[in-house]
Write a structure and sequence with these properties.
Shape: globular
Helix content: 25-40%
Structural class: alpha/beta
Strand order of the largest sheet: 3-2-4-5-7-6
Radius of gyration: 26 Å
Low-confidence stretches: 5-30, 605-611
Number of helices: 24
Mean pLDDT: 92
Length: 637
Amino acid sequence: MLSRSVSAGDHSATASQLSKQDPSLNSLPLDKKPKRVSGGFALLDSLKHHGVEFIFGYPGGAILPIYDDLYKYEETGCGIKHILVRHEQGASHAADGYARATGKVGVCFATSGPGATNLVTGIATAYMDSVPMIVVTGQVPRPMIGTDAFQETDIYGITLPVVKHSYVVRDPRDMGRIVAEAFHIASTGRPGPVLIDVPKDVAFEEFEYLPVLPGSIKLDGYRPTVKGNPKQINMAIEFIQESRRPLMYVGGGAIASNAHKQIQELAELFNIPVTTTLMGIGAFDEHHPLSVGMLGMHGTAYANFAVTDCDLLICIGARFDDRVTGKLDEFAARAKVIHIDIDPAEVGKNRVPDVPIVGDVGKVLDSMLRRIRETSIKNSPQQTQEWLNLINRWKEEYPLIIPENSDSIFPQEAIVEISNQAPDAIYTTDVGQHQMWAAQFLKNGPRCWISSAGLGTMGFGLPAAMGAKVAFPEQEVICISGDASFQMNLQELGTLAQYGINVKTFIINNGWQGMVRQWQQAFYGERYSNSNMEVGMPDIELLCQAYGVKGLVISSRDELKDTIAKVLAYDGPVVVDVRVKKDENCYPMVAPGKNNAQMVGLAKQLPKIEHNPIYCGNCGAKNNPRNHFCPECGDKL
């Protein structure tokens, strides 16, 4: 069965193999008669018919015919807007951010040769995190392919390991069908990027064009399983009914499926605590008393303790990756496993489940909840109460700590203050310590957390924020970056300036490649090889001024609150250099080769505070003043 990849080869053959369909589907008329247009126009018109509003790109020789048609197409008021980035990697990350924020397919353009290869990191980032994207590249003319022509690279071959599917358009008459197929493949099953490589002469060539409508494509051999097996669903329900220490482990598949409501309903129905992966942040409300936050290498102590001690692990749209599991053979070692995922290749890849369910997680959970309602299944609220009491005690004893008593700003307090002032913003991050602190302390809603998880791409945050802000111009969009990551794609300040894209960027500046320094300290004998970034770090205020963007510096705790408020009130893009404590480490941390319960850097167990207790208004239980929720009944205090 095809799962993550659709087989690829020379597309002159592959197209006919993939499209054994009624020929009329390739010529469904939107107008009364065909129009004579170029291949480039057909591409743009096909994108428009598939709902594309924004293209992120950078022109060059081989793709110029398409850009020329774009110029004419935009003059007609077509509704497509092109965003000119300053580097092709920025285009791919912006399309990625747009896709993650909206759930739609992101689109980026680049020319052949170096333009196309500059997209590769962004394509791989989208592939690793299952993000739907259409990547259009120019290519040298058909007669010159394979001759080592100027700016020729085999981008089709280069990207084969990091795309869901690829096309080389050999005939402009295939353009409408190829675009329709590409959108169908990118957005169905396990989402992913699809490449369309367009030779220059194909973009020039004219032909009689009729659009191919979205939804008209039927691909033999590509039938993603959407509905779960009823017998497996019934078995999963039985396992949940029997469990006294269940845990829901929720990944990015829940976000892709928009399954947050179903997850909350199932959790509340059976009083099941919920942990999320880095990709799953936002799939469950972290203010909810059943939330235990993120698990894994830099997850919360109580999430990692819970996954170690649970008797049933319900994996929803996650893949048991190494940063979550730690030592794999000791991960949830006492638990039975239910694994729900749309990609059959992921089910059983790293951990063999007791109940495998292949299907779209939203639809599978709908079926499960419907079955529960039909059979009037009810668990006693007390069945998991002892388990929840234990988890609540872990929350109390091992909280995430914001350090105090330093002359320097702690990175955690900066991130918490930003979150307090912009709780409903869309947040993007780069990669490193700041990413992990943001994951620990921000409380995001669905599609409001955008971060490179699988590939860990530094330089992702700023262009991804551009894409999200273009999609939602009225919503606050904030990029949490690091001083090393920010410099990877800082040229996109020019894009922010040109279009007035109102993104707020906060650089958590500790003068280091922070996570590299932490690992060198912990595992490499404090040999800090090439990880200090202080020499050569640009003056952010002057850099931003050169681009026509507002830049600020926060260097003392007294400035933090008021400056953040001013930044958020400012109408326009702002970059803030937040000077934080240089040697602060990100804890808890599961060291390589250790299991999740073997964390380093845990906060010391806090003493019990008996004075001035808070009494729960629901059950009357006496509570520690630090509690936000009653551990006895779960009500908010």
